[in-house]
Amino acid sequence: MSYSSLSSVPLSRDASDISIHISNDSSPLLDGALNTVHLVLSTQSKAIAYLANQYRKSDWSRQQMKRALRVMNNGLNAGGKIVVSGIGKSYKIAAKTVATLNSLSVQAALLHPSEALHGDLGIIREERGDVLVLISASGNTAELINLLQYVPECVPVILMSCSRQSQLSRNPRVLAMLYAELPKRLAEKNLYGLSAPTISTTLCLTLLDATSMALAELYMNDLSLRKKRFGDRHPGGAIGAETMKDRAMAFAQLQSSEPASTSASNSLSNSSGDYPEKSVSETSEELAEEDALTMADLVLLNKIRTSNNRVTLRALPENDELEMATLMITYDYILIQGDENEKDDQASSKTHITHALDSKAAQEIYRSSKLQGDDWQETRWKLEEALLEVSM
């Protein structure tokens, strides 16, 4: 069937007979496509949120992760490397993971399962303590099942998969799993009608990124050394330029004979009248039953509590960009007060803070947003995304 009647231009000899020409941006077809974009983005976000909760709440997943990290760390300590293998989209994820590990000074190598059977199996050196990581979303990849037959018995094997029960997960050679659970409600076929690897690949890549960072910190627990090695391996591009700048500033500070100012630390040590001083550990215990915060968030929360240069609002300015810019310049922290209905009756006279914004972080967001031409509404929601949930 030809669709040329629906097009503003006739089909040429090379034109598609399964699509149509769209004459302008107001076409309802584009609205439908935009809905698909939103669907994919929202479901990807939900899947990653689910994955984060999985590793916060699932003892089995956490134990498997700990075992996998231990096996890989011990292999590296023995002088080995991490060999990563997969096929199809998983091979591309494997390639990215290897690149990430090497950039973090964790020795890694990429192995194609088919090429392995034609000589590349020599990449794996069992005498050096190498560890093999297999990536298979289904856990039933025939090429990887076949590959395992020829991997030396003493080589530890770890499986990255979205399926807890599979042929590979049941293989006795697999010592641990990096499990990225994909709920049925978020499976690609149920959402899009196609089993196109999108959500599953995002989960695998995200979990492997997290594993890579954790392994790098475990293997090399000195942050200054990790930063130096990371900079050494990125001499080019934006990272290289940033590294050069940081090292130049550090060198200048070493050469400076001026004593370090203690006013900032003193100001943080003084408690304010409204918010008594609390240590990071006390704050951590107070929020133990809430969503886990990063150490950076806890430090920020402690600084907010002890800062005297803050302002409390009902909400960020809706339409007044100038007011928001003034607030970011004038105050160190912008606090958002919760609704009156959210307050406890016994504490109705107290200010209940639900969110906080670090003005320095806000200024960076504002600057970047303006440089790329965002209007105020675009900028405002980015500032809202930077709000840290607190309870004060």
UniProtKB/TrEMBL annotation:
<feature type="region of interest" description="Disordered">
    <location>
        <begin position="253"/>
        <end position="288"/>
    </location>
</feature>
<feature type="compositionally biased region" description="Low complexity">
    <location>
        <begin position="256"/>
        <end position="272"/>
    </location>
</feature>
<protein>
    <submittedName>
        <fullName>DEKNAAC104891</fullName>
    </submittedName>
</protein>
<dbReference type="InterPro" id="IPR046348">
    <property type="entry name" value="SIS_dom_sf"/>
</dbReference>
<feature type="domain" description="SIS">
    <location>
        <begin position="72"/>
        <end position="225"/>
    </location>
</feature>
<dbReference type="GO" id="GO:0097367">
    <property type="term" value="F:carbohydrate derivative binding"/>
</dbReference>
<dbReference type="GO" id="GO:1901135">
    <property type="term" value="P:carbohydrate derivative metabolic process"/>
</dbReference>
<dbReference type="Pfam" id="PF01380">
    <property type="entry name" value="SIS"/>
</dbReference>
<dbReference type="InterPro" id="IPR001347">
    <property type="entry name" value="SIS_dom"/>
</dbReference>
<dbReference type="InterPro" id="IPR035474">
    <property type="entry name" value="SIS_Kpsf"/>
</dbReference>
